[in-house]
Specification:
mainly alpha
């Protein structure tokens, strides 16, 4: 059977190895295959662990970001409740949610990617700004007062009441037209005041200031005692000052509330980007996990198949490298046992155990040849010796015959002489 070129090359090189080495090679191939499979499996497991860590990290980041956004929403609600409410204890809800936001921001910073570091720094700065804004708001709200009897609201209500009291209590001292003008202007001021309280429309303040100017004009034209006019003027000035304080503090509360609302909205938009990045990272890790498992599975199948095929091929070649010369030696031994001595011994040049056996058979062959040569020489010597014996016997016979003939002649001659 004609072997492929590569198989023939391997088969020619195998006798350089001992039979023990070849058997060891067969035994070591599965071990090497298992080691290779184990290496790739361990590498795949490390990749799987890394992917799971990434997925877990992304999940923690997304959850912390959602909790951060929830805290920001709760902060907006608490600011609104605080501004609209009458309980100063409501501000604690803002600080509670601020603490939750700071805690979750720390978690976000721990799990975030490098590209989000700047965003996280901005968020941390925004939280500091929110605290400052809320402190300004709470100060302004406290100065305003949470009830009609507190702060600027109490002073403002007192000033309004004093102006009304002075005007209504001294109507009798005024002319009818002056009283009507002052009362109508005062009523208009109170209407604009209620309109502003209900709508918080700052344009109503311009109407109030305009009506106050008209009231002051009417008061200046009114025929009143100078002392009464001074009292009403002072009360109106007090009303205007308290109203200005009320407006300014209300604007501070409104402005800071709007700033907080807009800042938290912007922060949530930035946090949504972090959540989006976390989801992308999680999806990428999931794809990497699937690819890693598929790659590891493919490598294990490929290496296992290669080990099986290589093992089968080497098993066949190594078996052939052992059985073929053994069969040749068996045939040579059979022929030597049959008396043949002119035979060629296979695998004599091999450096393995079979080569040693072949060289031993060469000794047997050479001994057989020498024995046969000696036997042939002995046969030749025996033949020569027998030939020499026959020659000597022939010579003796001839000598006896010639001697007898001579004696007969002498005897006959002797007889003739005697006769």
């Amino acid at each position: 059977m004609r072997l492929p070129r590569f198989a023939s090359f391997i088969l020619r090189r195998l006798p350089a190895l001992s039979v023990r080495a070849r058997v060891f090679t067969l035994a070591i191939i599965p071990v090497v295959g298992l080691l290779v499979i184990g290496f790739f499996f361990a590498s795949g497991e490390r990749q799987v662990d890394a992917a799971f860590d990434t997925v877990q990290n992304s999940s923690d980041l997304a959850n912390a970001s959602r909790e951060f956004n929830t805290a920001l929403t709760a902060m907006r609600v608490s600011v609104k409740d605080y501004v609209e409410g009458k309980d100063p204890a409501l501000k604690q809800a803002f600080y509670d949610q601020l603490g939750i936001a700071i805690e979750n921001l720390g978690t976000i910073e721990k799990h975030a990617e490098r590209r989000d570091v700047k965003v996280i720094g901005n968020l941390r700065g925004s939280l500091v700004s929110l605290r400052s804004n809320f402190e300004f708001l709470t100060k302004a709200k406290t100065d305003l007062g949470f009830a009609e009897t507190e702060g600027i609201r109490a002073r403002f209500a007192e000033a309004v009441s004093k102006v009304e009291h002075l005007v209504t209590s001294d109507v009798a001292k005024m002319t009818e037209i002056d009283a009507l003008r002052l009362l109508a202007s005062l009523s208009q001021i109170r209407r604009y005041e209620m309109e502003f309280m209900i709508s918080s429309d700052l344009s109503a303040t311009y109407k109030i200031y305009g009506e106050l100017a008209m009231f002051t004009g009417y008061l200046g034209k009114a025929a009143l005692p100078a002392a009464l006019k001074d009292q009403i003027t002072q009360a109106v000035e007090k009303y205007r000052d308290d109203f200005s304080d009320w407006i300014s503090h209300t604007r501070v509360v409104s402005t800071q509330s709007i700033v907080i609302q807009e800042a938290t909205t912007d922060m949530q938009a930035a946090t949504d980007n972090i959540i989006m990045h976390a989801k992308q990272q999680q999806a990428s890790a999931a794809r990497g996990l699937v690819a890693s498992q598929s790659r590891t599975r493919g490598i294990i199948i490929s290496v296992g198949t290669a080990v099986i095929l290589l093992g089968l091929a080497l098993n066949w070649l190594i078996g052939l490298s052992i059985t073929r010369p053994l069969q040749g030696l068996s045939e040579v031994m059979r022929r030597l046992a049959g008396g043949e001595s002119v035979v060629s011994i296979p695998a004599v040049g091999a450096r393995d155990e079979i080569g040693a056996m072949a060289r031993t058979v060469v000794v047997f062959r050479d001994n057989a040849r020498e024995r046969k040569r000696l036997e042939n020489e002995q046969v030749d010597a025996s033949s020569q010796r027998e030939q020499r014996v026959r020659t000597v016997e022939e010579l003796i016979r001839r000598f006896g015959d010639s001697s007898n003939a001579g004696l007969d002649a002498v005897r006959q001659a002797s007889q003739k002489l005697t006769s």
